[in-house]
From TrEMBL:
PANTHER family: FE2OG DIOXYGENASE DOMAIN-CONTAINING PROTEIN, HYDROXYPROLINE-RICH GLYCOPROTEIN FAMILY PROTEIN-RELATED. GO terms for biological process: mRNA catabolic process. It comes from Genlisea aurea. Residues 283-380 form the Fe2OG dioxygenase domain. This is Fe2OG dioxygenase domain-containing protein. InterPro entries: AlkB-like (IPR027450), AlkB-like_sf (IPR037151), ALKBH9B/ALKBH10B-like (IPR044842), Oxoglu/Fe-dep_dioxygenase_dom (IPR005123). It holds the Pfam family 2OG-FeII_Oxy_2. GO terms for molecular function: demethylase activity; mRNA binding. It comes from the Eukaryota. Belongs to the alkB family. Gene3D superfamilies: Alpha-ketoglutarate-dependent dioxygenase AlkB-like (2.60.120.590).
Amino acid sequence: DPLLLEYDDKDLRIASEFLSNWLPFLSRDLCQSCTQKLSHSIQSLHTDEIDSVPSTADVDCNGCDQDQGTCSVSCEDNVDNNDGRYEAEMETAPPATSETPKISWADMATDNVLFPEDETGSNPSCITAVESSPASGNDVKKKVVWTRDQREAFRFNAIERKKDFKCFEKVKGHYVNILEGLELHKGIFSGAEQKRIVKLVEELVELGKNNKLKERTYSAPQKWMRGKGRVTLQFGCCYNYAVDKKGNPPGILQDEMVDPLPDLFKTMIKRLVKWRVLPPSCVPDSCIVNIYEEGDCIPPHIDSHDFVRPFCTVSFLSECEILFGSNLKIVAPGEFSGSFAIPLPIGSVLVLNGNGADVAKHCVPAVPSQRYSRKTDLEKK
């Protein structure tokens, strides 16, 4: 859309979060199919591929059995319990306004359900909308009240989930889909939530630099060549990447001391399970935070079977690609070639399971800018 070319990425990101907050009102009379199309269009506002973004007015009702002008099928009639639409019907929605409501970025940033004050979800969350009164011509402030459960339900329904990755390679004489078991979930963490998570990571890094964390929690190896020596934080258990000075082999070290999972990370894990990103039978009890500076990378590998499958990685600060292949090749320091690349948007979660975790190797080429990723695992007992 040529209109979008007039705005920079920051403005489009703000617009995307604003429209996401108003999705309950915008989709109130739409069916499930139309709601998903509208949600995907809103989420795509802040991607680089803005030329392909449809306007809301052009969204059609493919797969919808209602006329486009009279589409009013209740979303509760189209509940898909297998692919993650909330079962509960939303009882209230923001009132209609005569003009597009204006909302401040500060209001949007505080609309954060990751750390609600009331864990029971009974306390409503208010955001202030400003609308023009036709009678007086003056701006009138109104409180739009949504419960935490309502806001969480609409965000849950807006998640983009891709589970059909395919790449066939010959393994042990047979062609197999080496990406079977991979899942990419976009939109799990909002911009405000990401900011809060990144701030905590920065605080933990400072504690590590000042020797205020347990011995093996913080690690900052010397950078002796391009791509080598990224900073890591480990919580819950200590994983030894290579034979260390004590002669310990690679794998989980039972006797080494690391700090427990921070409360914020535990809340993130609850989100991943509640929003059906990870199964309730495999709740992570440890994590590794990788802190990439420009040029840092992760070489080709298959994650240790000391950790239960599935496991996942969450992306923050910047997007990068992760490469998969049964025979990844090192081209140069920080440069690799592989069969299949998957972009990892910020706020997304990549789940690795099946062939995607155990047959295909994966690697992260040298990143173009600073990036945080958080890998969560369940330790085998």
